[in-house]
Amino acid sequence: MENGIVSGYQVLPGNPEDSTAWMPALEQHQACFGRAPEMATGDRGFFSAKNERAAQELGVKKVALPARGRLSAKRAKQQKQRWFRRALRWRAGCEATVSTLKHSFAMLRATYKRDPGFQRYVGWCVITKNLFSIARYQERGRSHGQSG
């Protein structure tokens, strides 16, 4: 996500574990932008040694997935590094976008029914949110350009 733009989303059936969505999300990013992200982060639900390795093999330079449970000394030291903590704060900031989609763009209550309708509803919410983010970014650029 850059400047509040949602570059990819997926509505998953049921309630699958977060860890299963990690690699499809990174692969979607690579397909969209032609490269792996410099940094990838998620919450504890996405953590697994396999997910960390797979992301690094894909070309992600900084993988910030906090481990679950009691941490080894080596793991604790890694998770205390500045870049790791900053990545987790960035991820937490992304939660605001999800909240905005749910509340400001009414994604909390879908009016379309069944799977195809719900998929369409989520898609329109994301498109609308992105158009607002683009307009806000352009307006910011105009107002900063005029004052300087």
Describe the structure.
The protein has 148 residues and is mainly alpha-helical. It has two domains: 18-94, no CATH class; 104-143, no CATH class. The chain has helices at 22-33, 49-58, 73-79, 82-103, 114-147, and strands at 39-41, 62-64. Strands 1-2 form a two-stranded parallel sheet. 11% of the residues are buried. The model has no long low-confidence stretch (mean pLDDT 87).
Radius of gyration: 18 Å
The CA-CA distance between the termini, in Å, is 28 Å
* Quaternary: single chain
Number of strands: 2
* Overall body shape: globular
Strand content: under 5%
Low-confidence stretches: none
- H and E string: HEHEHHH
- Strands side by side in the biggest sheet: 1-2
Give the biggest sheet.
2 strands, parallel
Q: Tell me the count of domains.
A: 2
> Which structural class matches the secondary elements?
mainly alpha
Total of helices: 5
Helix fraction bin: 55-70%
Q: How would you state the average pLDDT, rounded?
A: 87
